[in-house]
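Predict structure. Chain length: 293.
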Amino acid sequence: MGARRIEIKKLILIIIACVAIIGIVGRTWAYVDNQKKVKAEQLKIEEQKKKAEEEKKKYTVGVSHEGKKYTYDAKAISDKLNKYDYSNGGKKIVFLTFDDGTSTTNTPKVLDILRKEGVKATFFLTGSNIDNGGQKAKDLVKQEFKEGHAIANHSYTHDCHKLYPNRVLDMDAFKADFDKNDKLLKSILGKYFSTRLIRCPGGYMSWKGMEPLDKYLEKNKMVSMDWTSLNADAEGPRKNAQQLANYAIKTSKGKDIVVLLMHDTYGKEETVKALPAIIKYFKDNGYEFKTLS
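Prediction complete.
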């Protein structure tokens, strides 16, 4: 009878041990399974993060990825210009800028000269001229971007009467006009393109009631850029190439920072002819050529 009790106790202990082992195994498998799920979730998050980073790398602001090495912070230059401070500790920088393109006549010649001279420029593009130029004008926008130049927004219509009635900013009309041009540029250069840089038709300094634009630019981290110098190809009587070059040089002297206003639109053939002499002046005087973005 005593032996039987001992056997029963042994059996009970074995059963208890088995139950405990089963419990431990179950908990172990549950832990392993949970860890697998945690790891899978971590991998999923890492993969999503990686995809997001890869997607982010595709976005460009004003310049192509290749063009980044030629560009300069437009906000820093704008802040200097707003204070009429053209100094840079003796380090000379010139930003060649062209307004109102692209044109199917003069833009290709400007691009040829820039390529031969090995310098980059910033193109403030006007949408109506691009649309009027058809596919050739759109291909020129692509060429500018591909070759490392900077792309900026100079409105769609360039209609100063519409944008500044009675010389006062109409913010709604201004925003609609620039948004239309933004969409056009994105349709040409792809969904990953954007530009934060604008130039007001006629120049920011020419108009009244610009405070709403200031607030809009600040809120959207955008920059408006005027100029420090110009070749005067849109001021006063028509000038020949030599006169244009002389004017550009005269208005650039004594400045470490030069933002030079020119035009590559229709009727600006003399600007094209003047461009090599203008570039030579800046090279001879130790200027580094940069773009704005």
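Summary: Residues 198 and 224 are 5 Å apart (CA to CA).
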